[in-house]
Amino acid sequence: MPFVFAPPQQPVVPIQDERYTFFPIHRVYGVAKNYAEPGTQVKDVPFFFMKAVDTVAPVAEGDCLSVPMPAHSQDVKHEIELVAALGKGGRNMTLEEAAEAVWGWCVGIDFTLGDQKMPSGANDITRAKNFERAAPVSYIRPAYRCPMPEPADLWLYVNNRKRQGGSTDHLILSPLETIVELSKYWELRPGDLIFTGTPSGAGSVQPGDLLKGGVNGVGSIEVKIV
Fold it and tell me: Which residues have CB under 8 Å from 117's CB, separation 6+?
């Protein structure tokens, strides 16, 4: 098959503790407003968005990824998340099918620009969610070696000060329910990464800030803003 130019390299995420095995990325989905803080009423309805595949930046455990501050923004926010990696797909999936579809889990930071507005004043979600290294993730742990704990605790520190802490027990849509809901609108495919939402405490970062976060039982991630 002739091409006008050489096709870009397939984006992948390495598999934890497997030197020569990689997870090929198909799409990257996210869900916003998906955490209900304990003792509060749910006011927002979770909604979905996508991030470009080439915003994903894998980070080996023990390494630190440099994330450049976008020149067109003064407000980069961190959002620590549990990420599901799908090995199967489908449309209008059941909870059982969603469970079978999860190939593995990893930790992700969904970086978001808080100052990207459209002329109407509404948030420009495309610009806000898509920039260089906007989706760093840890290496993927296969589900057979990392059964999803229920609940799982999430945490994130900025310069050794805790910014975010929460539990998947407080998700409005559980990870499997999120997969089911997504499959109503898109046919999910092997290679899809699904960011499942972030707890309260998401805040702004500046050049020089060091971020360390993780999901208990899944892994950790370290990033520096430059």
Answer: 123, 124
Query: How many CA atoms lie within 13 Å of 219's alpha carbon, on the beta-carbon side?
Result: 31
Query: Rounded to the nearest 5°, which phi and psi values hold at 107?
Result: -105, 135
How many of the other CB atoms lie within 10 Å of CB of 213?
27
**Three-class secondary structure of residue 187 per DSSP:** coil
Give the β-pairing of 219-225 and 65-67: parallel
Beta-strand ranges (E) seen in the chain are 12-15, 18-24, 28-32, 47-51, 56-59, 65-67, 76-77, 80-86, 102-109, 112-113, 135-138, 141-142, 153-158, 161-167, 193-195, 204-205, 210-215, 219-225
pLDDT tens-place string over residues 25-48: 999 999 999 999 776 666 668 999
The owner of tokens 């948030």 is 123
CA 216 to chain centre: 15
The arithmetic mean of pLDDT across residues 104-118, rounded, is: 94
Note the pLDDT of residue 121.
75
pLDDT > 70 in the chain, percent: 97
CA dist 118 to 75, 122, 220, Å?
A: 16, 6, 35
pTM for the model: 0.95
User: DSSP 3-state helix, strand, coil percentages of the chain (rounded to 5)?
Assistant: 10, 40, 50
**CA dihedral in degrees (30, 211, 25, 84; nearest 10)?**
-50
Distance CA 100, CA 198 (A): 24
